[in-house]
């Protein structure tokens, strides 16, 4: 199927062509015609499936069909859980709208609100927002939601995991009754279904797992190593393998900082991205990484959520996550768009139970190796296993089993 058959305008097809896309992804093939028909859509899709273009392109088409009103009130609103996602969606919107007269902006917390208020004052047709900042600016009367015609809840499961349900409900109350609603979520817990039923009008269900090739193209390996030698091993792998773009996951913010400092000392350019970093520092680190100036991005799970880093060749779990579902999210950062990817986990003796949980979830044993020069010296009797699900996360995924079935379906 080609983009030409989806019913999108010439200007949008030109923008898509400029992006270098040749064929629409499965979610785009299914969702675009339905959204153009003005149906409510309940879509099961995660980052990496092309879902952003799946809703952005038809929304831009719909907006451009009606002349912008003089004061340009917000007509399309996308709610998304994180600042990074909001910025990414805005990037997408702006590139797809290159040949249209559509104004777009993103508003999110953690940065000065004044430039956002100024942008809103100038008029915005297509607004991307995190729930908290949106409510905040609405209370300050910096924007009106009375003309919203299309609402998107993007990554709805993450928004609920992050405790945004009340804010979302408040926002729904501020919108006109008559509007088109689209909900995108990677998983469907009871809470998501309840939310979906409460505001979607006769939705069409659309399902798209990431491209089949994605997972099969990820080479997964576990390297058993003593805990105290992990840093040496990771530097050896990255420097020795001359890997250029590596995303490394640690379990804690301090761990991310420490590892980053050690890498820099060994002349491996690295930056850390986690919740204690300012928005500016996070954006800068991610931009440097994307441009190839920073070789290693060290991230915690929460900071990495939803980040779109195209064609990432290597993901390393410096520490295994104690929530097995996070493993699936982490390795989903590699092998995108048909590219080959490698996901390596460094596993010390105290993490063996985490490894077993992950293997249970993904339904396969990870091939395990010991790297020459990094033979194990730790003895099981001397090592205290880490407690499972210690460091209980506030935004721990609540839905049980969804990711499991998603993963099994794909294999
Ligand atoms: P998303 O799932 O929206 O985060 O998109 C994942 C990545 O796929 C982004 O880098 C998009 O630019 C890219 N992408 C989206 N649609 C297509 C397409 N039809 N062909 C190739 N790449 C695409």
Strand content: 15-25%
* Amino- and carboxy-terminal Cα gap: 24 Å
Measured as a percent range, the helix fraction is: 40-55%
Bound compounds: adenosine monophosphate
Q: Structural class, from helix and strand content?
A: alpha/beta
Instruction: Sketch the major β-sheet.
Output: 7 strands, parallel
Strand order in the largest sheet: 3-4-2-5-6-1-7
By DSSP (H or I, 4+ residues per run), the number of helices equals 17
Radius of gyration: 22 Å
Instruction: Round the mean pLDDT to the nearest integer and report it.
Output: 86
Poorly predicted segments = 210-214, 390-411
Silhouette:
elongated
Structure overview:
- Helix 2 packs parallel to helix 3 (51-65), helix 3 packs across helix 4 (83-96) and helix 15 crosses helix 16.
- The protein has helices at 10-19, 26-36, 51-65, 83-96, 114-122, 131-139, 156-161, 165-174, 190-199, 212-216, 230-240, 253-265, 279-291, 301-304, 324-331, 352-362, 402-410; strands spanning 41-44, 76-79, 104-107, 126-129, 150-153, 180-185, 204-207, 218-224, 246-249, 270-273, 296-299, 314-317, 341-347, 368-369.
- The protein is an alpha/beta fold and 411 residues long.
- Bound molecules: adenosine monophosphate.
- Adenosine monophosphate binds at residues 21, 24-25, 28, 47-53, 308, 310, 337.
Which labels suit this protein?
seven-stranded parallel β-sheet; about 400 residues; alpha/beta
Secondary-structure map:
Elements (H helix, E strand, L loop, with lengths): L9 H10 L6 H11 L4 E4 L6 H15 L10 E4 L3 H14 L7 E4 L6 H9 L3 E4 L1 H9 L10 E4 L2 H6 L3 H10 L5 E6 L4 H10 L4 E4 L4 H5 L1 E7 L5 H11 L5 E4 L3 H13 L4 E4 L5 H13 L4 E4 L1 H4 L9 E4 L6 H8 L9 E7 L4 H11 L5 E2 L32 H9 L1
Helix pairs in contact: 2-3, 3-4, 6-8, 15-16
């Amino acid at each position: 199927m080609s983009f030409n058959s989806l019913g999108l305008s010439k200007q949008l097809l030109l923008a898509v062509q400029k992006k270098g896309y040749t064929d629409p992804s499965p979610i785009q093939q299914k969702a675009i015609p339905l959204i153009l028909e003005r149906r409510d859509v309940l879509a099961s899709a995660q980052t990496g499936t092309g879902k952003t273009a799946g809703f952005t392109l038809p929304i831009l088409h719909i907006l451009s069909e009606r002349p912008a009103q003089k004061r340009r009130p917000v007509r399309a609103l996308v709610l998304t859980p994180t600042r990074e996602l909001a910025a990414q969606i805005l990037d997408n919107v702006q590139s797809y709208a290159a040949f249209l007269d559509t104004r777009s902006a993103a508003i999110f917390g953690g940065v000065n609100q004044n430039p956002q208020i100024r942008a809103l004052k100038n008029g915005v047709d297509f607004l991307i927002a995190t729930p908290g900042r949106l409510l905040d600016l609405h209370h300050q009367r910096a924007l009106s939601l009375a003309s919203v015609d299309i609402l998107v809840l993007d990554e709805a499961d993450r928004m609920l995991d992050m405790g945004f349900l009340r804010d979302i409900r408040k926002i729904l109350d501020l919108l006109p009754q008559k509007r088109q609603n689209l909900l995108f979520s990677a998983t469907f817990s009871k809470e998501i279904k309840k939310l979906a039923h409460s505001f979607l009008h006769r939705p069409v269900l659309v399902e798209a797992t990431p491209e089949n090739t994605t997972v099969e193209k990820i080479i997964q390996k576990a390297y058993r190593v003593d805990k105290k030698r992990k840093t040496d091993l990771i530097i050896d792998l990255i420097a020795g393998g001359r890997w250029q773009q590596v995303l490394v996951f640690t379990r804690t913010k301090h761990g991310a900082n420490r590892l980053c400092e050690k890498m820099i000392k060994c002349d491996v350019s690295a930056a850390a991205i986690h919740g204690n970093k300012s928005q500016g520092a996070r954006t800068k680190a991610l931009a440097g990484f994307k441009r190839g100036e920073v070789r290693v991005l060290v991230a915690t799970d929460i900071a990495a959520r939803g980040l779109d880093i195209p064609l990432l060749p290597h993901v390393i779990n410096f520490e295994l996550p104690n929530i097995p579902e996070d493993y699936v999210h982490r390795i989903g950062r590699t092998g995108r768009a048909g590219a080959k990817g490698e996901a390596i986990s460094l596993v010390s003796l105290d993490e063996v139970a985490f490894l077993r949980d992950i293997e249970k979830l993904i339904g396969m044993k990870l091939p395990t190796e010991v790297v020459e020069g990094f033979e194990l010296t730790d003895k099981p009797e001397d090592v205290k296993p880490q407690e499972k699900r210690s460091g209980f996360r506030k935004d721990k995924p609540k839905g049980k089993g969804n990711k499991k079935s998603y993963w099994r379906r794909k294999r």
